[in-house]
């Protein structure tokens, strides 16, 4: 516990909001998609944080705000202890050295007209460095590719290999933090496992920290130490991954986890099947955003939005709910 | 619907701005030309005195800016050139007055428009039918003889100059075969049959030229469309091939086609210059060409603005039709 | 076990491409009985989706299908298109992975469901419309009578998939082929759709062929499983055979590669080295051999001789196509 609190802060998002405006007639009230609606989020050195949620939860938007690809509507972004909310253009380059992004679709995020060598040297050049061939080869080797791949073009690779190239590109500037947006969701199961193992290896070898944005809770469990669950633009629960997975406190987390199919035929599980869809982020429900689909909803839930508060007697495990699930009996302290 | 209204209002406002900028640009260009329209109007012998008189009468002695402002004012309030018995009136909306033709530009345009519109609309309907159906046939027979034939026709159409095809058509159908009249225009109100009879050759010529783009676009779009998942869905539901192509495939093809069609038609309504020349039809294109030759600034500005307005209008109509054809398009 | 409604024997699908003949499906057998669920599992390029399209006769013209596809004992391969059309969407219906692209964006959901009904029933538009509302209601679309006129883009992902399911079920098909029906959906919505498919099957006794790469979903809904690799069957058995007694190294690899949400993670996932081969690239021996960790225990035979599905002794209908002949995991 104490080591965590002194460990260096890589990323801090303070009360971040990101609204996307919708055009409309002047006689109608201006509308906004509240993609991220008041999020506090910290990543420390050595952590692997999973950011999970369903489509429309705002997880990808949050990742883009954190990497300064999007400007927050409100709130601040601190990277390496420095407030970079208003840093733009060229001045962002030193920031980008510290934090890099890996995208979901390696096909779309690699320029098909550039060789792997050119793709990998682009981040160096952006920093004003001319990389040596040895440096590029080392990068390729780090992600399990080899020198012979340097002159090839993206279409000559399989999906898994392309994702490795995407990771190598992100690693080229030796970042402290890698933000991966759905890094394996486009890959086959057997290939997905290879990439997940690679991410784990890089964490161990390079001391890299990750934010892993994903909708697949099983994938996230495999590699993360901490978990944050998003719903309609807010974090509804966060805490050490093993605690959240084994004893979710927020009803949404509990329902989400119970919905993931488990490869054990014949084993009956109590599944909470949520009704309906995620409400529109244009007009989220008052009070608790989850109350319209919650199986524990009470009148109070419609009043004020609940804030993240410690649950299960742990200081790090927090949930934003008026009626959190009780801790499992064997875990009560 | 209020969304659509707001959309139209916004677009019309934008159009007005574009027209304003355009008219200014056209004025500037004509004042950069080192020639004097008054020279042509002053008659012979052109004494400096008479030249000055003509200049004053045509209001060319004012500064360029002043003339431009008078032009703008004339649109709303009308204009009067000279005074007394010799005064020439140009009623609002006045888009200028042509001294060589001694008519207000608005009247000239409205006189010539039916001819150009007859050519353009008839040809447009032909090339749309012709282009889309050949394009569909080509797509359905991809790689086979019919496909190659259609693409070949398209290639010939794209690469043939319109005057060449027009002259060839006059030569073959007009003189050799003596099937159609070689020139002239009969108003629709006079005799619909003669009207169509005189227009059939220019229609066909323009249609062949323009259909090329439509064949290619329809073919490409249909091929893409036939690969879409919802086409497979239609087949999986048990729909027959005709239904798959016509009901499910064609709708998506029409969206880009309508865009192209609207713009082409808008462009052509502003004057089919070469075609009108070849077939000796006095449409807007003919008006514009003669005006340029006579340094008739008022007519050039008027026709240019009118053409620009048609294209902007066509764009607007295309966007509205787009919204009708594709429920995903919102005019918010 | 009940009489199978759909039986597939020795199905081969070969595509003629510029690069030569590509065998996408290379001899597979499966069958499914009313009320039962067969899952076909495999990665990209395994031929699982091609197999389902072949059953429906929906493959492009460059695909050659041989073998037997029997619906209630009636051979479907070689049937004229008119006959096949009566079966598609009526006796065998298809549910696609991506409901957004499977639905035609230009028509309302009600129109599309009604169309599926009218293609196989001689009824008025009004009756078909009523039937569409009834089906949309049955698949759990709230306020179906009002939403029937909405367009696909106005629905959420889960609701769209319900529409596709309603469209597939509107004619009470005997067989429903669902190709990755929940892959594009969020887990909470996936749970809803799985439950819906389950309810539907119970109510109508539909035979379900589920094509999926998600072993979790398969474990949950399947009775029998066919594991495909490179166009061939690697393993076939009950769902318990696969998950508790996997006999093929590939199946075992897939199970090991799958991260789990319900138990604390292993330090590393078991992986299968390399990537799935492109169809047709492996012509002799076992297609999995280049990636297999057990091939050294067998030797040459894996490279020279193609393994056929052979029953596992004492395990009923459980079959695997592997020369190893023993349970692999005990050997490492």
What distinguishing features does this structure have?
heterotrimer, A: 333 residues, alpha/beta, eight-stranded mixed beta sheet, four-stranded antiparallel beta sheet, 11 helices, 12 strands, globular, B: 332 residues, mainly alpha, MetI-like fold, 2 domains, two-stranded antiparallel sheet, 4 strands, ATP hydrolysis activity (chain C), ATP binding (chain C), AAA+_ATPase (chain C)
Strand and helix map with partners:
The complex is a heterotrimer of chains A (333), B (332) and C (332).
Chain A: H1 2-6, E1 9-22, E2 31-44, E3 48-52, H2 59-66, E4 74-79, E5 82-83, H3 93-98, E6 99-102, H4 106-109, H5 116-126, H6 133-142, H7 159-171, E7 177-181, H8 189-206, E8 209-214, H9 217-223, E9 226-231, E10 234-240, H10 241-246, H11 251-259, E11 309-310, E12 318-319
Chain B: H1 2-32, H2 37-41, H3 48-57, H4 64-77, E1 79-81, E2 88-90, E3 97-98, E4 103-104, H5 105-140, H6 145-159, H7 162-176, H8 192-226, H9 229-237, H10 241-269, H11 273-278, H12 284-293, H13 297-325
Helix pairs in contact in B: 1-13, 5-6, 5-8, 5-10, 5-13, 6-8, 7-8, 8-10, 9-10, 10-13, 12-13
Chain C: E1 6-17, E2 20-32, E3 37-41, H1 48-56, E4 63-71, E5 74-75, H2 81-87, E6 92-95, H3 99-102, H4 109-118, H5 125-138, H6 144-147, H7 157-169, E7 175-179, H8 187-204, E8 207-212, H9 215-221, E9 224-229, E10 232-238, H10 239-245, H11 249-257, H12 295-298, H13 301-304, E11 310-311, E12 319-320
Parallel strand pairs in C: 3-8, 3-9, 6-7, 7-8
Antiparallel strand pairs in C: 1-2, 1-4, 4-5, 9-10, 10-12, 11-12
Helix pairs in contact in C: 4-5, 4-7, 5-7, 7-8
Keywords (chain B): Cell membrane, Membrane, Transmembrane, Transmembrane helix, Transport
Subcellular location (chain B): Cell membrane
Membrane topology (chain B): Multi-pass membrane protein
């Amino acid at each position: 516990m104490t080591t965590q609190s002194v460990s260096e802060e890589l990323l801090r998002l303070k009360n971040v909001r990101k609204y996307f405006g919708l055009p409309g007639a002047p006689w109608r009230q201006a509308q906004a998609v509240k993609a991220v609606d008041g999020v506090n989020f910290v990543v420390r050195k050595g952590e692997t944080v999973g950011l999970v949620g369903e489509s429309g939860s705002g997880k990808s938007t949050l990742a883009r705000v954190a990497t300064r690809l999007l400007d927050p509507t409100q709130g601040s972004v601190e990277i390496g202890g420095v407030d970079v909310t208003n840093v733009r253009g060229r001045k962002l380059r030193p920031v980008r050295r510290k934090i890099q992004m890996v995208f979901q679709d390696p096909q779309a995020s690699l320029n098909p007209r550039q060789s792997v060598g050119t793709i990998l040297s682009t981040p160096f050049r952006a920093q004003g460095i001319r990389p040596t061939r040895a440096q590029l080869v080392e990068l390729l080797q780090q992600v399990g590719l080899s020198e012979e791949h340097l002159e090839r073009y993206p279409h000559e690779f399989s999906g898994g290999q392309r994702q490795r190239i995407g990771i190598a590109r992100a690693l080229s500037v030796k970042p402290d933090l890698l933000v991966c947006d759905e890094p394996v969701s486009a890959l086959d199961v057997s290939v997905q496992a290879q990439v997940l193992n690679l991410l784990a290896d890089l964490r161990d070898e390079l001391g890299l920290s990750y934010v892993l944005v994903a909708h697949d809770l099983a994938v996230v469990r495999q590699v993360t130490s901490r978990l944050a669950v998003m719903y309609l633009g807010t974090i509804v629960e966060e805490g050490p991954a093993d605690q959240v997975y084994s004893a979710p406190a927020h009803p949404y987390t509990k329902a989400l986890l119970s919905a993931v199919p488990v490869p054990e035929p014949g084993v009956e599980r109590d599944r909470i099947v949520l009704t309906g869809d995620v409400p529109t982020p244009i007009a989220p429900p008052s009070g608790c955003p989850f109350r319209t689909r919650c199986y524990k909803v009470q009148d109070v839930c419609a009043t004020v939005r609940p804030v993240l508060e410690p649950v299960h007697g742990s200081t790090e495990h927090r949930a934003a709910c008026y009626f959190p699930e009780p801790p499992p009996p064997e875990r009560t302290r | 619907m209020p969304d659509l209204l707001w959309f139209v209002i916004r677009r019309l406002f934008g159009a007005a701005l574009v027209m304003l900028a355009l008219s200014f640009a056209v004025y500037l260009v004509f004042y950069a030309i080192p020639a004097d329209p008054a020279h042509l109007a002053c008659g012979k012998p052109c004494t400096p005195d008479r030249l000055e008189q003509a200049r004053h009468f045509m209001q060319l002695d004012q500064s360029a800016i002043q003339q431009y402002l008078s032009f703008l004012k004339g649109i709303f309030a009308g204009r009067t050139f000279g005074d007394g018995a010799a005064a020439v009136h140009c009623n609002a909306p006045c888009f200028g007055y042509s001294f060589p033709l001694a008519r207000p530009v608005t009247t000239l345009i409205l006189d010539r428009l039916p001819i150009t519109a007859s050519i353009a609309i008839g040809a447009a309907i032909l090339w749309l039918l012709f282009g889309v159906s050949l394009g569909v046939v080509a797509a359905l027979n991809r790689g086979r003889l019919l496909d190659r034939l259609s693409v070949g026709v398209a290639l010939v159409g794209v690469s043939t100059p319109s005057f060449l095809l027009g002259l060839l058509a006059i030569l073959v159908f007009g003189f050799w075969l003596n099937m159609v009249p070689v020139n002239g225009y009969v108003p629709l109100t006079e005799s619909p049959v003669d009207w169509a009879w005189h227009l059939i050759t220019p229609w066909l010529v323009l249609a062949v030229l323009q259909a090329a783009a439509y064949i290619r676009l329809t073919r490409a779009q249909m091929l893409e469309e036939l690969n879409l998942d919802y086409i497979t869905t239609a087949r999986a539901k048990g729909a027959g091939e005709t239904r798959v192509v016509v009901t499910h495939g064609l709708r998506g093809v029409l969206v880009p086609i309508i865009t192209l069609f609207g713009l082409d038609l808008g462009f052509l309504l502003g004057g089919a210059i070469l075609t009108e020349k070849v077939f000796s039809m006095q449409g807007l294109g003919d008006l514009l060409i003669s005006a340029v030759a006579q340094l008739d600034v008022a007519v050039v500005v008027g026709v240019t603005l009118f053409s620009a307005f048609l294209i902007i209008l066509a764009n607007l109509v295309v966007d509205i039709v787009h919204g009708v054809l594709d429920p995903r398009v919102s005019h918010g | 076990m009940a009489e199978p409604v759909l039986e597939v024997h020795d199905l081969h699908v070969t595509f003629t491409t510029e690069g030569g003949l590509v065998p996408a499906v290379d001899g597979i057998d499966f069958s499914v009985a009313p009320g039962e669920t067969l899952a076909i599992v495999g990665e990209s390029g395994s031929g699982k989706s091609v197999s389902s399209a072949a059953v429906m006769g929906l493959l492009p013209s460059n695909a050659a299908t041989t073998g037997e596809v029997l619906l209630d004992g009636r051979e479907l391969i070689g049937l004229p298109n008119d006959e096949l059309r009566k079966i598609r969407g009526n006796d065998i219906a298809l549910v696609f992975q991506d409901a957004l692209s499977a639905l035609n964006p230009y028509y309302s959901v009600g129109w599309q469901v009604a169309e599926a009904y009218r293609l196989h029933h001689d009824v008025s538009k009004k009756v078909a419309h009523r039937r569409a509302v009834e089906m949309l209601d049955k698949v759990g679309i709230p306020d179906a009578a009002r939403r029937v006129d909405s367009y696909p883009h106005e629905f959420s992902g889960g609701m769209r998939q319900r529409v596709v399911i309603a469209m597939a079920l509107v004619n009470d098909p005997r067989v429903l082929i669902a190709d990755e029906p929940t892959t594009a959906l969020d887990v909470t919505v996936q749970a809803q759709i799985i439950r819906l498919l389950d309810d539907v099957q119970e109510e109508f006794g539909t035979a379900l062929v589920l094509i999926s790469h998600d072993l979790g979903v398969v474990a949950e809904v399947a009775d029998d499983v066919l594991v495909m690799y490179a166009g061939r069957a690697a393993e076939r058995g009950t769902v318990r055979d696969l998950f508790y007694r996997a006999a093929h190294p590939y199946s075992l690899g897939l199970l090991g590669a799958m991260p789990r949400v319900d138990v604390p993670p292993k330090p590393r996932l078991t992986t299968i080295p390399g990537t799935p081969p492109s169809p047709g690239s492996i012509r002799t021996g076992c297609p999995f051999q280049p990636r297999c960790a057990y091939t050294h225990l067998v030797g040459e035979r894996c490279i020279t001789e193609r393994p056929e599905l052979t029953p596992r002794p004492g395990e009923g209908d459980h079959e695997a196509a592997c020369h190893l002949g023993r349970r692999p995991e005990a050997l490492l």
